[in-house]
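Quick one, T. Sequence first:
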Amino acid sequence: MIIQHDITIALTKGRILKETLPLLASAGIEPQEDPDASRKLIVKSTVPRVSLVILRGSDVATYVRNGAADLGVAGKDVLLEAGGAEIYEALDLKIAPCKLMTAGPNESGGKCASTRRVRVATKFVNVARAHYAARGLHADLIKLYGSMELAPLMGLADEIVDIVDTGKTLAENGMAPRELIADISSRLIVNKASMRTRHRSVRAIVEALADAVTAKSSC
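Structure tokens:
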């Protein structure tokens, strides 16, 4: 892979990173140092002029949107919440699958009555607002950053909007998933300006990753 420009790729920490690194390796891009062991904030890759930066998922879109990173890997949930301004969603990497759903206590009967307001705890306030508005409900949104399941249990909220993987945490806390908002996977995103000004380099990486995704899917 020949890269003609300096390119920075922002990667999401945690599970997404673990599933992204093999795809990058298949595309010929590997970190020169172990991201978990290194204290460097920017890690050089095995491809000249390509660097990697490891960030929180919610920050990846911000770095790409503002041009601090040319490409990034982020969950679709983050992109739905943050909006797509200045970001081009280039590729579904088909990794870290989960669902963005509403959920609530088992004993409440499954769904909130359509004749009343609903209190919703979530970190996805924009997504939640749009979802409940589409149902004709007014949602009083309470922004939380973790332990969403606690909010209905403590009487803070009627429902939550959150990522659901296996549903085990919900079940262990007497809750159940209700409505599907979106199927989520991780996406390769590109800064729109970088796509114009560094087109050949960006396209080379996008195409290499697309080939890696295809090869993985065919296994």
